[in-house]
Design brief:
Elements: H1 2-37, H2 40-57, H3 64-70, H4 76-100, H5 112-120, H6 122-139, H7 143-167, H8 172-193, H9 204-238, H10 241-275, H11 280-307, H12 309-316, H13 324-350, H14 354-375, H15 379-406, H16 410-440, H17 445-462, H18 470-482, H19 489-503
Helix pairs in contact: 1-7, 1-10, 2-5, 2-8, 2-9, 2-10, 3-6, 3-9, 4-6, 6-8, 7-8, 9-14, 10-11, 10-13, 11-13, 11-16, 11-17, 12-13, 12-17, 13-15, 14-15, 16-17, 18-19
Length: 504
């Protein structure tokens, strides 16, 4: 069972990594093109409308999807309940936000968002239609199909509809329509693959188990939304839509590689952690391995982005977003904390430790609000610094609870983080050195950015040979051995023996 689960997890990570790389490249292309076709204000208007809608988004499905994944065994009744709930909740929230759209100006004093909120509210209904199929695929850990759906829907929605409309002068409506087109294509593809029962079910005894868990997840997800997007509210209230557009572009620029990697990794971790939730030693080992592997990739990337922020902003967004350079540099340094917090949060979800997670979210939102008030005179730089401080406090709080849940030691968690930290320092020094050298020779930005990427990638690869990275090498050797067929038993045994040497 453990081997099958591990193999399923690795297959899932292979496909989610594939989807991550492709989608990230597509979004880099999309962001670069749209930043030149649209104005910062256009992005700000859509960000405001999205903020308003996401309040409802966390209750439009009542956490039914996560409940399906977390539940060990699901029946045909569970599937019908899931579809019935998300279908009618989708209709309810689409209608509700259409009617209440004018009140969105009480949050942001920008009348343009009224019509945007009304059109975007259709997404509640569309997401309700696709939710059950998508979550059944996640439950089965069929990440190959999920990856294909993600890439195909993004291509249709953003790279086709979005760019075409932006080119013909539709402004912020091109972003809105791109998002809806992406959801429509995802809905059609997912149901064509997973044709679940469409009959409604209205018996309360089948709803209670899913809603008990899902309701708590919805509330926590709302708190997480506030945690992630509180900056949108603050900037939108205190500054202009153009300033908000600059901040959201800076944040998204960092999130291109980070968000997709961690989100897809989370899609694999939740079902895996849920299966072994009662076996604390296995859950502990899975958690520490996840921290080590993700940290080894994320920390060097974030340090590299921080150093290369000038080149990334000017090349991908253009000179009119020059104010985003310093914000991008600061936000990148805080992103590893958020990634580790997400993994800690998955442990809480998998073990149904939801009350503690809710308390942590409330603490974070309160702290972030106070920091925004204290640092508001520094404008966007103050917002970015508040992000780092709040995430640091959050990781301390999460470490306390996961240490108690999983019974790991301080030495074990430091050993898990050490590969990423050391590799990040080496990569950071190397990238900074090559950047200064090339800038002194007045080379083009594209050449400098290319050199920064190559330097960072080489540092990550070469760091594998350092002694401190034996945990990472151990995972690589084990996974290579597991992927080799019986016809290669000799080489497979060598890899497994090497892994055992590293563990000893």
């Amino acid at each position: 069972m453990a081997t099958n689960l591990g193999d399923a997890a690795i297959r899932g990570l292979k496909w989610t990594t594939f989807a991550t790389v492709i989608t990230t490249l597509l979004q880099v292309l999309y962001t670069s093109i749209m930043a030149r076709l649209l104005q910062p204000e256009d992005f700000g208007v859509v960000a405001m409308a999205s903020f308003v809608l996401r309040f409802g988004g966390y209750f439009a499905q009542m956490g039914i999807g996560q409940a399906l994944i977390q539940k060990k065994e699901i029946s045909s009744h569970d599937i019908r309940v899931a579809f019935t709930s998300t279908f009618f909740l989708g209709i309810l929230f689409s209608g509700l936000f259409y009617v209440l759209a004018p009140f969105s100006t009480l949050v942001f004093a920008n009348p343009k968002i009224i019509s945007v909120v009304r059109v975007m509210s259709i997404s509640f209904f569309l997401s309700g239609l696709s939710s059950t199929s998508m979550n059944l695929l996640r439950k089965k850990m069929d990440f190959k199909l999920l990856s294909i759906i993600e890439v195909c829907s993004y291509l249709f929605g953003y790279l086709s509809v979005g760019i075409i409309l932006a080119y013909y002068g539709f402004g912020y409506w091109s972003i809105v329509m791109a998002g809806l087109a992406q959801i429509i294509s995802s809905t059609l593809i997912s149901y064509s693959i997973v044709r679940h029962n469409l009959l409604f079910l209205f018996k309360w005894e089948y709803y209670k188990p899913l809603l008990n868990f899902g309701g708590k997840i919805s509330f926590i997800s709302l708190l997480e939304f506030l945690r992630v997007h509180l900056s949108t509210l603050v900037i939108g209230r205190l500054f202009s839509a153009a300033v908000l557009g600059i901040y959201t572009r800076a944040f998204e620029l960092i999130s291109l590689p980070i968000y997709y990697l961690t989100t897809n990794f989370s899609k694999v971790l939740l079902p895996v952690f849920s299966v072994i939730q009662d076996d604390k030693p296995k859950l502990k080992n899975a958690f520490l391995s996840s921290i080590a592997i993700v940290g080894y990739i994320i920390i060097p990337i974030c340090i590299g982005i921080s150093i290369a922020s000038e080149q990334m902003v000017l090349i991908l967004l253009g000179s009119k977003f020059e104010a985003a350079i310093i914000v991008t540099s600061i936000l990148a340094l805080g992103m590893p904390f958020r990634v580790f917090n997400n993994i800690n949060g998955i442990v809480c979800e998998a073990t149904a430790t939801l009350n503690v997670k809710a308390i942590f979210q409330i603490f974070y939102i309160s702290l972030l609000t106070i920091l925004y008030f204290i640092l508001k005179e520094y404008e966007l730089v103050g917002i970015a610094m508040s992000f780092i401080v709040a995430e640091l406090f959050m990781i301390i709080a999460y470490t306390i609870i996961t240490k108690k849940l999983l019974q790991y030691t301080v030495s074990e968690i430091l050993q898990a983080i050490a590969p990423g930290m050391l590799t990040g320092i080496i990569a950071g020094i190397s990238i900074y050195t090559i950047t200064i050298f090339l800038k002194n020779h007045s080379l083009p930005l594209l050449i400098i950015l290319s050199a920064q990427i190559v330097t960072g990638a080489l540092c990550v690869f070469l760091s594998l040979f350092l002694k401190v990275n034996k945990l990472i090498k151990n995972e690589i050797y084990k996974r290579l051995a597991n992927s080799i067929t019986d016809t290669n038993k000799s080489f497979k045994n060598k890899l497994l023996n090497k892994a055992l040497q590293l563990m000893s």
